[in-house]
Amino acid sequence: MDLNLAKTTLEQGITFVRNAGLQVVELRPGYVKCVMPFRNNGNHIGSMYAGALFTVAEIPGGALFLSSFDTSKYFPIVKALNIDFQKPAKSDVTVEISMTTEQIAGIQAEADSNGKAEFVLKGKLKDSAGVPALRTKVMPCSRAVLARSRSIGIFL
Fold first, then answer.
1. pLDDT beyond 60 at 154
2. CATH architecture for segment(s) 3-72+87-113+121-137
3. Where are the domains of the chain?
4. How confident is the model at residue 123 (pLDDT cuts 50, 70, 90)?
């Protein structure tokens, strides 16, 4: 998929994500960096709303999928997402997730062979000072798009 189109789709394609202001700062095959602004995403105790944190933890899996896999053959489904809150986020939050070309090829091979592939993506969401606010572990699962398509699971 064209990376500019993928970036626009990720930022604007889901109403909640658009309203929250999530930005895909960098996107290339095997790498994504996203930022969730604190502005308009605060909660009743002055830290970032958990729903906004979940969103910035979950979207990178879709971003990696769009930048790294053939969307005519595979689509991602989040099977599970675990969040370990470490410190209240009181500023913008950034997450970077990456996969090697070898990992991508292995996931594609498994999906081609088994009809799906499950894998884990781990991330650390950091505040504007670089302090970890939470750790995530996303477990996606891909599913077939067409009869010969295969699904890929993504775990963050």
1. no
2. Roll (3.10)
3. 3-72+87-113+121-137
4. confident
